[in-house]
Protein: ABC transporter permease/substrate binding protein
Amino acid sequence: MPRLELGSWINSGVNWLRDNLSWLFDFISNVVQGMYDGVNTVLSGPEPLLLAGILALLAWWLRGLLPAVLAFLGFALIDSIELWGEAMNTLALVLVAGVITIVFAVPLGIWSSRNRAVSAVIRPVLDFMQTMPAFVYLIPGIFFFGLGVVPGVVATVIFSMPPGVRMTELGIRQVDAELVEAADAFGTHPRRTLLRVQLPLALPTIMAGVNQVIMLALSMVVIAGMVGAEGLGSTVFQAISSVDVAMGFEGGIAVVILAMYLDRMTSALNQRVSPLARRALAKEKAKALSGLKVLHWRPATSVAMVGVVVLALVAGGMSMFGGDDEGPKVSANVGKGQSVNIGYINWDEGVASTFLWKELLEQRGFKPKVQSYDVGALYTGMAAGNIDFETDSWLPTTHASYWSKYKSKLENLGSWYGPTSLEVAVPSYVKGVKTLEDLEKKSSTFKKKIVGIEPGAGEMKLMQDKVMPGYGLNKDFSLVKGSTAAMLSQLDRSYSKKEPIAVTLWSPHWAYDKYKLTKLKDPKGAFGKGDHIDTLARKGFSKENPQVAKWIKNFKLKEKQLTSLESAIQDAGKGKEQQGVRAWLKQNPGMANKLAPVPGGADQKGKDAGAAPMIGYFPWDEDIATTYLWKNVLERRGYKPEIKQYDVGSMFTGMSTGQVDVEFDGWLPVAQKQYWDKYKKNLVDVGSWYDKTSLEIAVPSYVKDVKSLADLKGKAGTFDGKIVGIEPGTGEMKLLKGKVLKEYGLDKEYKVSDGSSPAMLAQLERSYAKKEPVAVVLWTPHWAYSKYKLTKLADPKQAFGASNQLHTLANKSFPKKFPEFNGWLKKWHMTEKELATLEQAIQDAGKGNEEKGVQKWIDAHPGIVDKMAPVAS
Structure:
């Protein structure tokens, strides 16, 4: 029978929905996230025991004194095991998901109860929703909503909705038909019959459905911890992935307490809202023994509400005026409270490097948030922009499949450790097994299994796809999927019993220090060459966070440093990773400043600090960029530079008279030759800092059959008889009008419009947007060639002359007046990439923010200030 590509069809449908209904998913995401943030803020604000008192008071109102005392003790236990914040996150998730579910489920149940056709259609849909494994709902949730709270809430709503719909329908259908008929006989409108007869009588069943919705929601939000949903789910997932019994038990206890509280409270709520239940409650109170009445007494609703309000006001006041937590110690407020989301895989080096950067960023004034993910979810989250960066990508081999899939949406910030290796290891007491080839004949020795790690790990994919088939191990061995911690736990048990075991491992790893193991050789090279551990970030992270990106690009750890860091974290224990990092930093003084140096913190003053050179510049991109760059550098060296914009003619005149000390945009020997020849006796050429420039006319690439200046002849009608120029005083404009047009016979056919560089670029943008022909005066380098697809018209007659260099020109007194600055400029040089990125940084910053753009560029180029303006110590 031919295979039905059902999965492919579903995948195509999901991709179509994501591409065409992104606006809807963004709206849903904003609404759900807003609801969660609001509820979570309310629950997380008060002091834990005070909020526990409020929840206990609600329990007293709904069930009595003893349940209230037990509720308070349960929440106090959660606080004592330091899981209060996670528990409130989970409670917020449950409440938001529960409310959304009930809002949809109850109306659907009512509709189904009143229309059998609707019931017949909805029933199989509900069966599908209820029987589909809960984990499956997380996959489309990630695609549509990214990582975090929203996909967890959406998956929870879908998973928990069926009992709400079913119980609502069942409750209404079970209402005595004779009562409904009696209401109809008295002429009651069907809507009033529903509201006054059916719903009140069906309320106990509906409330049972609500109870089930809440319970299923709680179970699902725990599972949602796998995709970054906050709360106890994340704690449980981390405990499972690391096989941490203590953490798992504590997280499980907190979940149980929440589940019991929500179950008892939603069940008891029925007694307050249902007429039938209230009557039964009154009978129960009347039968209570006189000596136990205090245990059965419940405060009136008004009394309970007053108590809740009073406690809430006190809680709000404590939250407002408390705030005496020390928080992280900020040694240099570089981040100024900026948030950074860091994801990590729960591997030793990933945990160590992640919490190291969490501590460093907090010390620098950032607000980093760390979250553990599975490998696939981590890469998906970074590609979607939900995670800023992660520090544990094993490339080019282990994570090759993920990098290949997502590299267009990621940035590689460089490797910080290497080389590494992947291998299968066995205890050294297992004799006769030295290579992977030796395993093939020893399957019975190892009970036909190799103990692996997380199924999504790159090493596991390599094992399945290449290593095991390459050595014929796939016939007699099975690869056990689990987690790193589970593998290490099994290794520890087998090692203590001297039992043979084969495990997937990698180097470096502390297991090689703890146990005597044999790394099985890989003569066929199936594992590939050794990896290096890279830091990857979402696309655009470096541009938005140049300082952090600069630190990470320079980040390096040696094997001894990494293993000692891992050891310090292991000694601190689970949940105290940052304390371990702080202990390690104390043992390695100066490491924090080495890894995250404060920008500008060690600026040295120049010998001529206090000098005030006058710098002139043209309104051209390269001149604006370099002028503001030198302004920043000089100010760091203690100078007091002044800058001022000039026209070309005014600039040369001002320099020759000493009104301008220096400028950086002399196009020589061609473009500004006439000015240089006129004023050179009063000027000095400090030197060239950029080579290989060119002057040209450019047209959009969609203009066909125009490849050279000669092709312009006879096509004046195409370009409205004009060439869009720049400032009339520039050398290029004079060359164009005086020589180039005449050389190609274009002077009678075309008119060159005088204007400015910004006006020319604005006209180019307008014409390009409309696909209209336009010819503009341009030069290389220029960012326009990156933004638009343009054709540089060839100049076969070399009318524009030879290529220019960009020179620093100054008044003849400049070298003696500013000897230190003159020395820096003589050795200064910029590459095409450096100049282009500097211009782009200034453009991104926007007009009036040139200094901010330069600062970002300097932050992204560590050491550039010392390179441009070195100061002898």
